[in-house]
TrEMBL record, chains A, B:
Residues 3-126 form the Ribulose bisphosphate carboxylase large subunit ferrodoxin-like N-terminal domain. Residues 138-417 form the Ribulose bisphosphate carboxylase large subunit C-terminal domain. Keywords: Magnesium, Metal-binding. The keyword Transmembrane does not apply. One of its GO terms (molecular function) is magnesium ion binding. The keyword Nuclease does not apply. The lineage of its organism: Bacteria, Pseudomonadati, Pseudomonadota, Alphaproteobacteria, Hyphomicrobiales. One of its GO terms (biological process) is carbon fixation. PANTHER family: RIBULOSE BISPHOSPHATE CARBOXYLASE, RIBULOSE BISPHOSPHATE CARBOXYLASE LARGE CHAIN. It comes from Aureimonas flava. CDD domains: RLP_NonPhot (cd08207). This is Ribulose 1,5-bisphosphate carboxylase. Its cofactor is Mg(2+).
Amino acid sequence: MSDDIVLTYRIETPGSVEGLARKIASDQSTGTFVPLPGETPELKARVAARVVDVRMLEPVAEPAFGRTHDDLAEPRSFNCGEADIAFPMEAVGTDLAALMTIAIGGTFSIKGFSGIRVTGLTLPDAFGRAWPGPQFGIEGSKRLTGVSGRPIVGTIVKPALGLRPPESAAMVRELVEAGVDFIKDDEKLMSPAYSPLAERVKAIMPVVLDHEQRTGKKVMVAFGITATDPDEMMRNHDLVLAAGGNAAVVNINSIGMGAMAFLRRRSGLVLHAHRNGWDILTRHPSLGLDFSVYQTFWRLLGVDQFQINGIAAKYWEPDASFLRSYHALRRPLFRPDDRPLPVVGSGQWGGQAPATYAAVRSTDLLYLCGGGVVSHPMGPAAGVRAVRQAWEAAVAGIDLAAHAADHPELAASLEAFGGADAKGA
Amino acid sequence: MSDDIVLTYRIETPGSVEGLARKIASDQSTGTFVPLPGETPELKARVAARVVDVRMLEPVAEPAFGRTHDDLAEPRSFNCGEADIAFPMEAVGTDLAALMTIAIGGTFSIKGFSGIRVTGLTLPDAFGRAWPGPQFGIEGSKRLTGVSGRPIVGTIVKPALGLRPPESAAMVRELVEAGVDFIKDDEKLMSPAYSPLAERVKAIMPVVLDHEQRTGKKVMVAFGITATDPDEMMRNHDLVLAAGGNAAVVNINSIGMGAMAFLRRRSGLVLHAHRNGWDILTRHPSLGLDFSVYQTFWRLLGVDQFQINGIAAKYWEPDASFLRSYHALRRPLFRPDDRPLPVVGSGQWGGQAPATYAAVRSTDLLYLCGGGVVSHPMGPAAGVRAVRQAWEAAVAGIDLAAHAADHPELAASLEAFGGADAKGA
């Protein structure tokens, strides 16, 4: 087994779960729709995938793919099960695009499913040797920001789009003065006509370096270097590095695995991954793939900081799903330093700190607040202090409202942002 | 309007379709979850997306995302509508990763949908100037194979995985002798230990060139050059080209847009795109994105031959969906030569030729038969002849069974593969 790649598929079908599991194993290795002259027993033994286990689950009444497709319109019940399928290393190798093609991509084309989701992935050690993993990860992020014993507090230059470089730089000046550890471009900001990356870097980095000169604290600023053309992305990378920057936002799904591999091999920056588009792959709980599977690819490729959501996110993702993502990032794949720093964000402002800490029992995270910092009623500096106060309280086990009694910035946050979610947290 | 990028979203929600359309426009340009100091009217006018039109559709009783999520568990009816949203070019630019991030990727994270699908995309002319499109496309594919007036007949070396290079070469020898125009590696075959690409090329290309020498016909062989690392993929590309090859299979979703841009810029090969994994994005008819939207990106990036399915495919895709994909590929984006050659495949053997031709009224396609050729009862050469006979009949409007009366290879195909589908076709 140690030389096999094992995938787990949650299969839903009006027909036989086990039959479809066997079909995945056959279609995704040697098979086609008719018997073949060259498909010898010896060849099959060498490269054929095989079903290792099938565990039946409760049937469901509605098909995950909906009732539009003819074969799903009539049945009143759909069988469910989880199947483990082993793919021999000899057939796949350690190439991640090969793995994605053979064990994941193609399976979704097979007829007969009413739902299919990839829920598990176990890789042989050879993958750990073949791929670089994070260059900076958790320890590098802490070292470069000088933060330990508490979350790295980050924020996003907002509005997401529309500020010209001097306006962005003015906002950054206010945020570095405010004591924030990390600042990023919104993931939607790359290099538009009104804010070319080169000009933005030129406007912002002197602010960061000047602040470092005066205070000794170098704020990590992650610039949006994403570009479709990997050569252009590398030029973006290089100009951030040359200007003294140390981080970049990368929209991993938009560029794809190849460009990520290309970048990582040449990178001198902390690569902060935004997974926009991931929701397409995962939002329906019976379709697509689990984050635990998805993140394996990007960690091997070398993501240093991985955006996930947070408790009471502004996005659709439920808390339980966020926590599964967090714990997936915390599990070493092959060694402890292949763990990226979890980036907890989306509608965060500090109010979620107690619930977050209670669930994760760690401060090894980047706590990313957009509007929660920049729209604080007493200004961004107070926003940063409020977030740090909330985390101090969370770690010490002090109720936020009690802590707010002698922490006016936190009190103002609770007043401004604290709905039922936060009180409950 | 001509300077805007316009996306159409099919929105399904227990709440307000128009409200969610406005939320997409706001979240995906300037907005966050609280008002922002810098979000001035001038800035909004410059970069803000705006809802141009909302057309209500019939409500549905079951949410596309299923009933697992709390906000979708109770409602008995879900509102549906199509919304057109315009994004200013100044905010997005012509970068495809930026477009994907801003107008597609991020929208799927927004709370409140019970379903969301991107169904339309209209781009300003600047995109046509910014991207190369196909290098060879339809005309190049015809020229290099010497085929006109009928489909290019292609096949796949099977079994998909497991053959060693000399075994693959023996199969290729049989297929070129059989008169096939095009041969490809199965998309799952890249460069595994038992068949490294370099050895496969070395074994196969002499067979192709020898056949060309003797007959004047150069069969197009598309080798699986996909690799995660773009540098490695280029080395793969180069060794195919150096050996006299002229085509490559590229698993576009597995490598991603960046690696495709990288490859296209340097490519001397016909790039045959396999879209494995696309089904994840489209199989649920109310989630993900339409092929018409998806293919726009890959055509601009430079796909020369685009695999879609076919009539009565072995995969899940219904005929109507295949035909929409075909017609999407046939529509010029900005100019006639930005159209890749449609590759009609999946369970094809010739029996579907009449129905295919009746629907598409064109022979500008690569008709790709895997098992349908290599498993023909009289051997692959007969399989190729049977496919060409089927297309002759289809174009001439002759019934397949009638044509089979004096075409024994077609008769044998009908006997071996012709189920109810084919008879009906």
